[in-house]
Design brief:
The chain is built from ten helices and twelve strands. It has 255 residues and is of the alpha/beta class.
Length: 255
């Protein structure tokens, strides 16, 4: 389990995140929702140890996150920030190869196993055809899939992604989320992802954790969150639920 206890993050003299207790199953598909400034990115950056809390402790498999070496942590958690670093001059294969760094280091001997892992990651994400293409010249959806392939090559059992759909058009948003869902269901990768879109979250998540003003506002199944009153309280706007035109269930629309 990934457990947070008495977590506080302060900025400019105020709490921007306060979580007395939260446990996340690293094998499930969890979406973190919330309005802008609710603490979503702060939370996922804490989980990926990109930042430190002002107080409290985070444990992974009953071990404090701070006890992990950087390489050991990277073998357990693969993290994709909202704005990945520039990769000018790297083709897709070279980008994905970076995912093997936690296992081989800078000067480690390259093995056939590494090549097989990279080929598998490219096949799982559908980027094999772009092997020699420069990553920064791909479309948004193709580039995002290449980054996810790099996470897979890292072979960490838990993937964390901060708003992976934010810069994508509608079709690519569903494509990327469908890919993450398949990786979770068919290949056993845990997924924790930040989203803004309630309907996208409800369609793909096993569990939704929602934050409001840095505090836990909801934690449960997607169908439970699809309540006009709950969503209205979370986002501070009138929201209606209407029947999905092609599937069982509801979708949220602004009233």
């Amino acid at each position: 389990m990934l457990e947070l206890e008495d977590i506080r993050v302060r900025r400019d003299g105020r709490d921007i995140l306060s979580l007395p207790q939260l446990s996340l199953d690293p094998h499930r598909f969890t979406v973190i929702l919330g309005h802008n400034g609710s603490g979503k990115s702060t939370l996922i950056n804490l989980l990926a140890r990109q930042i430190q809390p002002d107080s409290g402790v985070i444990r992974l498999q009953n071990r404090p996150l701070d006890d992990y070496s950087q390489r050991d942590l990277a073998r357990n958690i693969a993290f994709l920030p909202q704005n990945p670093p520039e990769v000018a001059g790297l083709n897709v294969r070279e980008l994905i190869r970076l995912g093997r760094f936690p296992w081989r280091g800078t000067f480690g001997r390259w093995r056939q196993e590494d090549t097989t892992i990279i080929e598998t990651a490219m096949a799982q994400t559908g980027v094999s055809r772009y092997t020699e293409h420069l990553t920064d010249q791909l479309s948004g959806g193709e580039r995002q899939r290449a980054w996810i392939a790099m996470l897979l090559a890292q072979q960490a059992p838990l993937l964390m992604l901060d708003e992976p759909t934010s810069a994508l058009d509608l079709s690519h948003q569903y494509e990327v989320m469908g890919l993450l869902r398949r990786l979770n269901q068919e290949h056993g990768r845990g997924v924790i992802v930040i989203l803004h879109d309630v309907n996208l979250a409800a369609r793909f998540a096993d569990r939704i954790v929602a934050l409001k003003q840095g505090r836990l506002a909801f934690d449960g199944a997607p169908e439970t969150l699809l309540s006009a009153s709950l969503l209205g309280e979370l986002y501070g706007i009138d929201i209606d639920l209407v029947d999905h035109p092609r599937q069982d269930g509801k979708i949220a629309v602004v009233a």
